[in-house]
């Protein structure tokens, strides 16, 4: 069978499997956690600023006039309040597009400004990103975008419904990681020795990452219940079948996937190129070359992951530095321990993907060689 045909068959099977999983976990009747009857978020335009007492920093409260641009009351002009803060509301000006919270009760409308309508700009920036990826990567760039979209669909329409129905988040994460890895590699390179080596190296590397995270949590007494917003999560867990305690570790599996996949494909691709340039290279030589390339990648990729998790906890680091926390206080903080666990686990996944992918690729490329 030709390579294009194999790729097409693989994607067809993946599409059928995705649809089967999608319909298996669709139609979930969600437990009502909050009464939102009569409340809607609608697009609106500020037609007039009636009054306001904003401070120099922009915080305060305004009374504005809005023209609704969506919903059952589209075109209607209503009065609303806008409580400007760092997280909610907006500093309204005439002509500004905003999102309004509309509460309807007994035919009466009560409205408040939720935020600036930033949706169109978010999609515009996403479109710019896609255009740059396609311009630089060509067909490979298109495949990368499609694989990214597929991964996000799997997370939102397979992973989340699975854990909502009570399936272990760790098991669901492993299944989604394996599924998306196979489809991504197939989209980028088809079914080849290179893609198979990258697939297996990625999946095994991510499993190592999850296993290390579980061991780290056990020996340091860190569980999935030591995260921020745990009170809200516990309430969700009590009202649904979601296993809250496993969410932290499932998140680590998903977070490490991108970096591990990058290493897996890079090593498999490098060894494939070496084999094509020098068909006489044996398994041992190919494996050693993969290890040499992988060692160079380990330093940069590990730094990338550690810095990514550090950047995500920069607010905590600022507090630690500004308030001059003591060492014993810092090292025993749950938030610090979780960030260290995430960084080390993801980095270990990258490190373990190097020898695994190198050996699998070297074995496959030299399989028919005496």
UniProtKB/TrEMBL annotation:
Can you tell me where the transmembrane regions are?
121-138, 145-164, 170-188, 200-227, 247-271, 305-323, 343-365
Alphabetically sorted, this entry's keywords are: Membrane, Transmembrane, Transmembrane helix
A Pfam family: YibE_F
Source domain of life:
Bacteria
Concerning InterPro entries, the annotation shows: YibE_F
Protein name as annotated: YibE/F family protein
**Coiled-coil residue spans:** none
């Amino acid at each position: 069978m030709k390579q294009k045909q194999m790729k097409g068959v693989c994607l067809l099977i993946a599409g059928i499997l995705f649809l089967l999983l999608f319909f298996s976990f669709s139609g979930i009747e969600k437990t009502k956690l909050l009464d939102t009857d009569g409340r809607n978020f609608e697009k609106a335009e500020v037609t007039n600023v009636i009054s306001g007492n904003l401070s120099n920093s922009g915080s305060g409260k305004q009374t504005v006039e809005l023209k609704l641009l969506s919903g059952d009351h589209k075109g209607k002009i209503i009065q609303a309040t806008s409580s400007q803060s760092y997280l909610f509301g907006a500093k309204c000006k005439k002509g500004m597009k905003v999102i309004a919270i509309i509460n309807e009760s007994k035919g009466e409308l009560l409205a408040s400004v939720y935020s600036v309508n930033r949706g169109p700009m978010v999609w515009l920036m996403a479109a710019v990103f896609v255009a740059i990826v396609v311009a630089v990567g060509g067909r490979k760039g298109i495949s990368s975008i499609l694989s990214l979209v597929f991964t996000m669909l799997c997370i939102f329409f397979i992973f989340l419904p699975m854990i909502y129905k009570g399936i272990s988040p760790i098991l669901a994460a492993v299944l989604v990681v394996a599924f998306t890895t196979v489809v991504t590699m197939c989209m980028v390179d088809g079914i080849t020795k290179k893609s198979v080596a990258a697939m297996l190296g990625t999946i095994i590397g991510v499993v190592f990452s999850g296993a290390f995270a579980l061991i780290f949590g056990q020996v340091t007494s860190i569980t999935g219940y030591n995260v921020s917003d745990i009170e809200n999560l516990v309430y969700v867990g009590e009202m649904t079948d979601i296993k809250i305690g496993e969410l932290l570790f499932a998140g680590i599996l998903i977070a490490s996937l991108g970096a591990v996949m990058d290493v897996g494909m890079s090593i498999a691709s490098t060894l494939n190129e070496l084999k094509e340039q020098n068909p006489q290279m044996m398994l041992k030589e190919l494996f050693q070359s993969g290890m040499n390339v992988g060692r160079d990648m380990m330093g940069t990729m590990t730094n990338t992951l550690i810095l990514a998790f550090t950047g995500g906890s920069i607010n905590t680091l600022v507090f630690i530095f500004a308030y001059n926390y003591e060492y014993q206080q810092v090292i025993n903080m749950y938030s610090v321990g979780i960030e260290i666990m995430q960084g080390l686990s993801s980095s270990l996944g990258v490190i373990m993907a190097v020898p695994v992918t190198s050996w699998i690729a070297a074995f496959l490329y030299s399989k028919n060689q005496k």
